[in-house]
Design goal:
542 residues, alpha/beta, Rossmann fold, TIM Barrel, 2 domains, 6-stranded parallel β-sheet, disordered N terminus
Length: 542
Amino acid sequence: MSGTSGVQREFYVEIIKSSHYDDDGYLIQWFRPFASANTLGCLYGLVDDARQRRVLGNDVDIVLNAHDECQRVIPTGKIIRRIRAAHGRGVVFLAGIQTNQIPRAIELAREFRRYGIQVVIGGFHVSGCFAMLREPPDDIKTLQDLGVVLFLGEAEGRMDSLLQDAYHETLRPVYNYLGDPPDLRGQPTPFLPAPMARRYILFSTFDAGRGCPFQCSFCTVVNVHGHASRFREADDVEGLARASLDRGIRRLFITDDNMARNKNWEPIFDRLITLREQEGARLKLMMQVDVLAHKIPRFVEKATRAGCNRVFLGIESINPQNLTAAGKLQNHVDEYRDALLAWRSHKVITYAGYIIGFPWDTPESIERDIETIKRELPIDILEFFILTALPGSADHRALWEQKAWLEPDLNKYDAEHVTFRHRNMSEDRWQEIYRRAWQLYYTPEHIETILRRAKTDGAGLHHVADAILACYGSYRSEHVHPLECGILRRKVRRLRRPGLPRENPVIFYPRRLWETLTTGAALGRFYLQLERIRRQVSRANA
């Protein structure tokens, strides 16, 4: 919270990134999540910049607070009381809401709207629905009926007018900027208060650019951010990196859907290289790229000199028919190995995603694919996803227009649940092979192979073992995808999905204690198994 002496009025801006519910109806929360949400930082940086420039006038102080529901219980009561105490001068931004977070976001919006508080919602779900569908679905209509303002597109260059409209209580029902993506050069960079940013275990996130030239049918990014490369200036990225280092944050995740297609990648890398090699900055980066990135002259070499020690490659499938069906024409299976080896030669830990549920998939073909990947492709960390018909994607629009069955519970659109019908697999078989895929890849024998490669390539046994623990260990013990996992699951009895009963404390708390102990024991057993394998590999040929 911030304040300035002599200011006559305060205007509250509360930015909330909501979580979503697990299969038992409890919010997914952690005492220490793995990574922050980039949109939360983007909005915080934009509002903080507007606050410093006093866009509401010299006699108005913007009081700014950020809340990530994945790391804390949202103090809705306190937010309501302080805005009401300020005579309603305030607004709640529901930031970067994805499809699986919509049910929770609606509940939050309903609570704030009950007291007449202004609420604005943005993110890929609302933007994607308007970008791809001819009429809004029921959840969007529910938000509109509640009087929630819909913000479509990106907020850079629009925050001043949005805040002014909120302050004067003249917000429009819809702000649609989908056809006008902003120039990111010179814009305020993502930022979170240091105490909040330091609660994340693995990464603080930022985007160096937006836009992707490819046409993957399952992707929502291209239909919201567009295909053209828009990028931040090297000066701005350097400033963000310096600010992070000053706050003790040394691991950054560049959230660009494809950093290799950011047209400003080289000046950005050059600036970070100078920071690391001439000033000794201990900066580490993770980024996402396509499998052709290694063919761009100097890209891999400069990325690693800039601090990249982990890279996620968009592989998705090793079946050419599936890649064609998904519109992922840039992927050629015969190039996967060369791409992985190019990164491994620079001691980079390789991550990849495998999507389960493409048209030509069967449980048997998926098992064969995983065995082929284990045998042929030097991937360290393989993450599995269920092909999900996300609103905003071409896949979803096609099914919507065909009036095909789509899972009505948006909470399940998390890439871990089946959301439409597959031609080769029943829902149960599809869900089961997703669960089995993790076990098939992370066998003790293959973990040993991964660690032996890490020892040979020089990526570091400890670093790769830690990555396996964070990825497979979290899924194995908590049954939550690693992308939304963290340290020590938090369950709050009263924060259960509407429609489900609030459990008796006498039942809830003993069971929760048992769950915590058994989950911790499962993770501990896996850690000991992993450590035993690591020591065996370390001693071999020592």
